[in-house]
Structure formats: structure tokens, C-alpha cells
Specification:
The chain is an alpha+beta fold and about 375 residues long. It contains twelve helices and twelve strands. The strands form four sheets. The protein has a six-stranded antiparallel sheet. A two-stranded antiparallel ribbon has the order 7-10.
């Protein structure tokens, strides 16, 4: 179904009837102009979109409820929204808010203008030490923040990492993430090449699964393929369980040292994220761009929407725009702080879509980067 065909404002705000949510902006599809498709997922599609009043560019993730229900992933979707809407880090893709109608759920996401890390890697084959170390540093910093919030990602891979306007890495997919107050989980999830031994052996796991994935990613960024890749699943399982992999002769010894200290079968032997960020290979080669930490960034570049045909798209013409002159931008950013996932997004099998379980969080407006285009 074409998402542009439904422009009514009958869409529902997340979260039921709490007073905090009533005061927040109630988004609906008619608030956005829909642009070109950015990608296709298992349960729907992602589109470039522009909020009509502020001209603020976002990525609108459209998820079809019946597909989620058919796969039995309702809880996974609620958990993804719950977690991502409360995370605030320059290397984590922002979820500004969400809304839903009878057939679809809409996630209002930060627009990462340079696309998937996976595509960038495939385009060049492999990264040099400077680029790889920079990405690993940024990811380690973001994961350290997640772990401090008792959030385990569990599915780190290039396809789940995007690149922002400055080329900075952003964790984008929290579908397999979990709040882990007990720090012990048994669910097997993630991508085969990135699965740690404890998951393959069906043992309880904790946040150290992300350390293993960080090591696999570091290897893939430098070599161009994962360390345990084989033609068959069984062979890959065996190599992971034995921690069997080889370094190409062209890798620097310092990079090999970091990877080997992350790819340890015993989770407690893996290098911590704090140790990763001060590792001598990281310290020598990683470049931290101060732009991504700026607190006051304008809405960037601007362009009119092309509405002359059904294939609506956005062009990129530079302009100067003042973020403070767009009050709806604050509503957009603040809405995620005043909302959390609820059973109303996808009704339970009993048909109850009543009140929400609202997680208390700060309502302070945090200024973030604006990636995209706006209209003068």
C-alpha cells in the first residue's frame, strides 16, 4: 500500500491517555511530505520525509502491523521503540517520536544522509586504519553509553550502522536490543557471522556479546569480510566455537592485538569498551570529528519538494537556515521524551489496546544534528 494514499489525521499518538502524552505533539501522516524510498525492511519501508511546518527532514520508517503480527514480533517492535526513543548519543540514531493507525506503525527517525556503513564498505572493499579505528572508537563510545543504561544491542553489524552528515557512525537498528536489569539473557539472536560462542552454545549472555561483535566488525572493516565466514552455517558455527580465524599479513600488529583481545571465547576475558577506546591502535589512528558534538547546529541544507509526479523526491540545494526559527523542530525532538512504547501500537491478541506503560524520562529538549534539507 502506498503510504501517501492515507493522509488523514486519524492516526493515534503512542501511549494512551497520560497527561504528559496529551501535552506532547500528536503526529499523523498528514504532518509530513513523503519523499523518495531510503530502504526496505522485513516489515515495511523507510522513506525520506519532511515535516510540513518546520521543513525538518527525517526518515519515516513505515511498518505494517499484519506483517509484524504474522511473524510474532509485536513485543520486539515495542521493545525497539521503547529503547531507542530514550537513548541520547551522537553515535545513536535518534527516534524523535512515533504514531500509528489501524494498519501501520510510523517511526520518526533522524535522517543519516550518507546511508549504510555496509554500502560504504562494499564500495571500497575495506577501510584503512584511520577510517576503521574512527568507526570502532565511535561504536565503542555508543555501546558504552548503551551498557550504562542497561541496554544490550546484540546485533551489531555493518547493515545496522548508518553514517551521518559528517560521516560519523550511528547505531540504527535496535530490533534485537533488550533492557537487561538482570544482565543475563538466553535468547539466541543476531547475525550468524557475528554470533558469539555463548549464544551458539545457548548459554546465558550479558553485555559482553557486544564486545565480541565489536571485534568481528573491526576485522571486517579492515579485511572486507567477517573472520569466521565460510560457505556453510555449520562450518561457521565450528570456527566461532573454536575462535578459529586468521589475520591477513597486511594488517598492523596493533590492530590484530585489539581484535584478538575482543574475540575471546570466555566473555570475561574480552577487552572492556573503556579499554578499547584507549587501546594504542585506536589512540594512534582514530579521528574524532568535533562537529558531531556541536550543541547548536542549524537545519543545514534546503530544497523544495518535487511534487510534479508520484515519485516524490528531494533535491539538495544549499541554503542558510536558522534552527531556532523552527518551533516544530523542538516539538519533534521533545515528542520522543514525552512518549514511550505502548500496547496500543499493535493490539494484543486479546484485543486490548488500552493504556500505556510510560517510562519516565527527562523532557529536556536536547539539540541534535539536522541531517537533510529544508525549504526557505
Amino acid at each position: 500500500m502506498d503510504i501517501k494514499s492515507d493522509t488523514s489525521c486519524d492516526d493515534k499518538e503512542n501511549g494512551g491517555s497520560s497527561s504528559a502524552q496529551k501535552s506532547a505533539k500528536k503526529w499523523c501522516l498528514n504532518d509530513f511530505e513523503i519523499g523518495k524510498p531510503l530502504g526496505k525492511g522485513k516489515f515495511g519501508n523507510v522513506y525520506l520525509a519532511r515535516e510540513k511546518r518546520s521543513k525538518y527532514i527525517v526518515a519515516l520508517k513505515v511498518i505494517f502491523k499484519h506483517q509484524v503480527q504474522k511473524a510474532g514480533c509485536e513485543h520486539q517492535l515495542r521493545r525497539e521503540i521503547e529503547i531507542q526513543s530514550h537513548l541520547r548519543h551522537p553515535n545513536i540514531l535518534r527516534l524523535y517520536g512515533y504514531f500509528y493507525d489501524d494498519s501501520r506503525v510510523y517511526m520518526i527517525l533522524e535522517y543519516a544522509s550518507k546511508g549504510e556503513l555496509y554500502n560504504a564498505l562494499k564500495a571500497v572493499g575495506k577501510f584503512d586504519d584511520v577510517q576503521a579505528a574512527t568507526y570502532i572508537y565511535q561504536l565503542a563510545d555508543a555501546l558504552s553509553y548503551c551498557h550504562s543504561k542497561k541496554v544490550i544491542h546484540r546485533d551489531i553489524k555493518p547493515e545496522n550502522l548508518l553514517l551521518g552528515v559528517y560521516g560519523e557512525l550511528k547505531i540504527a537498528d535496535f530490533g534485537w536490543s533488550v533492557h537487561a536489569p538482570s544482565s543475563r539473557r538466553t535468547t539466541i539472536c543476531g547475525t550468524l557471522d557475528y554470533l558469539p560462542p555463548e549464544m551458539i552454545e545457548d548459554k546465558p549472555h550479558d553485555e559482553k556479546v557486544d564486545l565480541w561483535s565489536l571485534g568481528v566488525l573491526c576485522y571486517e572493516l579492515l579485511v572486507g569480510k567477517p573472520p569466521f565466514e565460510t560457505p556453510t552455517h555449520d562450518a561457521t558455527y565450528q570456527k566461532i566455537l573454536k575462535c578459529e580465524y586468521r589475520f591477513p599479513p597486511n594488517l598492523l600488529p596493533e590492530a590484530c592485538d585489539l581484535i584478538s583481545k575482543l574475540l575471546r571465547k570466555l566473555p570475561h576475558e574480552r577487552l572492556s569498551l573503556e579499554q578499547v577506546m584507549v587501546h594504542y591502535w585506536i589512540q594512534k589512528y582514530a579521528k574524532v570529528n568535533p562537529n558531531i558534538n556541536q550543541q547548536n547546529i542549524s537545519l543545514g541544507t534546503c530544497a523544495p519538494l518535487n511534487t510534479t509526479n508520484s515519485n516524490t523526491s528531494l533535491s539538495s540545494q544549499p541554503c542558510n537556515s536558522n534552527a531556532a526559527a523552527n518551533p516544530v523542530k523542538k516539538d519533534l525532538i521533545k515528542s520522543a521524551s514525552n512518549s514511550s512504547a505502548s500496547s496500543g501500537i499493535i493490539p494484543s491478541k486479546t484485543g486490548n489496546s488500552g493504556g500505556a506503560s510510560v517510562v519516565k524520562t527527562t523532557t529536556t529538549v536536547i539539540k541534535t544534528e539536522a541531517y537533510g534539507y529544508c525549504k526557505k
